[in-house]
Amino acid sequence: MAQIQIAKISEVTPYLKQIKSFLVLGMLFSGDRISCCDEAVVISEGDQLIAIATIAPYGENTGNSTIVGVYVMPEYRRQGYGTKVVDVSVPLRGLGN
User: Fold this and answer.
1) Smaller CB count within 10 Å for the chain: N or C?
2) Are 50 and 76 in contact (CB under 8 A)?
3) pTM of the full structure
């Protein structure tokens, strides 16, 4: 059964090691993103990452909360997991206001 977790980036490091694409890791954390991403919404099943949305609580450079990146593992795509991490992220940080 898949579980949703809201966590600090430091707590999701084991999941990030499952992402083999440097391009994807760059999208989630490159440049200033590594310094401003402090939170993530993760869907996992056991130790297996399903989807992640990285969040910059104070924005990348605007001061406004921002979803920096969303990634769904290839075998779980087109099953609604990307939508779910976004749906949880938006009210979490007041992103829809």
Assistant:
1) N
2) yes
3) 0.79
DSSP 92: H
Cα 88 to Cα 39: distance, rounded to the nearest angstrom: 12
Residue 85's pLDDT band, with cuts at 50, 70 and 90, is very high
Residue with tokens 């406004």: 64
Residue-wise pLDDT for 2-23, tens only, equals 999 988 888 887 887 787 776 6
3-state secondary structure 29-84: HCCCHHHHCCEEEEEEECCEEEEEEEEECCCCCCCCCEEEEEEECHHHCCCCHHHH
